[in-house]
Amino acid sequence: MELNGRQRTHYPFSALVGQEEMQLALLLNAVNPAIGGVLIRGEKGTAKSTAARALAALLPPASQDGFQIELRSEQGVEILAGPTVANGAAPFVELPLGASDDRVVGTLDIEAALQHGRRRFEPGLLARAHGGVLYVDEVNLLPDHLVDLLLDAAASGVNTVEREGISACHPARFVLIGTMNPEEGELRPQLLDRFGLAVEVAGPTDPAVRAQVVRRRIAYEADPAAFVAQFAAEEEALAQKIVHARALLPQVALSDGLLELITHICAGSGVDGLRADITLYKTAQTLAAWEGRTQVTVDDVRRAARLVLPHRRRRQPFEEPGLDQQELEELIQQHQERSSRPRNREQESGDNADQEDE
After folding, report:
1. Half-sphere exposure in the Cβ direction for 329 (13 Å, CA)
2. Of 132, 202, 207, residue with least CA distance to 174
3. 275 catalytic per annotation
4. Number of domains the chain is built from
């Protein structure tokens, strides 16, 4: 079976069981990579890497022409061809733990430029991930500055490398997926805040669900081709839904009232800065587009908040990340009551008179 130009041999995304929140977070980033990536936190054996690999096959095919790299120096601007992708399939690039900065962002050959006048740029993993998925397992074990580089590129969609008066710049639009086991250490709050969405995953506790997971995995290992064929229609439907949602996204409107709700929720949830507000806005819009709508609803904001806020809330030492659902509902209720409360005309007149007296 082929999907988006790639021969499918791995586990289908639609065959995953019991990880709906993780799947939704991944699909929203597939529609709108500007959300800023997904951090998946959880114990071993919860399909984190399986889901990341399966997502890449759902993405629209990469351009056969690749992309251009702009090389600038005192001698002027030179345009180089970027790396091409086999069969036009959306790439899946895995970042190894021991990767150097040059391996990630790319290398400028300064010696060749100075001695022979040849300006040369060796693309890194960010270039190879363009149009696809960049997967970072155990992201919490990477050096902080390297995580910063990844998050910068994911947020801006551009990678720039500068050395000795020479700079190389190229597009780097990809879905960033980071996974981690909290038992092996945490990310600093400054880095957590920069991941667009975060989800907590755990193994299902329902014996019937666990049995379904095992049954599907055994069937896949026994005959991968036959198993993949069973989910071909569902996979194709998801791939088309991503394409349609991407096209619809620019038309999605979010009202001023819902923007006020977003800022009310973020202010009341104990998050620092405004990144949460902006990400919640983008995620609510993307949810509406994913469901084929051009108007964002309160429920879109509610569902988006569950993905955007848990890892950004200020926590006490040893306190687990999370979002109090009752607190979220109370914040929504507060805003709705305030918005629906009619303003007394006499009060408005009195307010205006007070302002004139002042």
Report:
1. 3
2. 132
3. yes
4. 2
| Contact criterion met (CB below 8 Å) for 197 and 28 | yes
Strands 92-94 vs 106-108: parallel, antiparallel or unpaired: unpaired
Question: Does the residue 258 lie in any domain?
Answer: yes
Tens of each residue's pLDDT in the chain, 358 residues:
455 544 457 899 999 998 999 999 999 999 999 999 999 998 888 889 899 999 999 998 866 456 778 877 666 666 766 666 656 678 899 998 888 888 998 887 766 655 655 667 788 899 889 889 999 998 988 888 888 888 888 888 888 888 777 788 888 889 999 999 888 888 888 888 889 999 999 888 899 999 999 999 999 999 999 999 999 999 999 999 999 999 999 999 999 999 999 999 999 988 888 999 999 999 999 999 999 999 999 999 999 999 999 988 866 555 555 677 888 899 999 898 888 776 554 444 445 544 444 4
Residue 9 belongs to some domain of the structure = yes
CATH of the domain at 282: 1.10.8.80
Torsion of CA 266, 270, 273, 274, to 10 degrees: -10
Locate tokens 């970027």: which residue? 82
Look up residue 152 and give its DSSP letter. Answer: H
Q: Per the domain annotation, does 245 fall within a domain?
A: no
Q: Among positive and negative, which fits the CA dihedral 184, 188, 189, 191? A: negative
Tokens, residue 283: 């995620």
Q: Which helix (H) or strand (E) holds 158?
A: strand 158-163
Domain-ending residue, one of 169, 204, 220: 220
Query: Is the same domain home to 173 and 272?
Result: no
- The Cα–Cα gap between 28 and 245 comes to 9
Are residues 185 and 264 both part of a single domain?
Answer: no
Q: What is the CATH number of the domain that holds 112?
A: 3.40.50.300
Domain carrying residue 184: 2-220
Q: Do the beta carbons of residue 118 and residue 158 sit within 8 Å?
A: no
List 275, 302, 306, 312, catalytic entry? 275
Q: What is the CA radius of gyration of the chain?
A: 23
Are residues 195 and 300 located together in one domain of the fold?
A: no
DSSP secondary structure, 94-128, as one string: E--TT--HHHHHEEE-HHHHHHH----EEE-HHHH
Q: Tell whether 99 and 36 lie within a shared domain.
A: yes
Domain identity same for 12 and 149:
yes
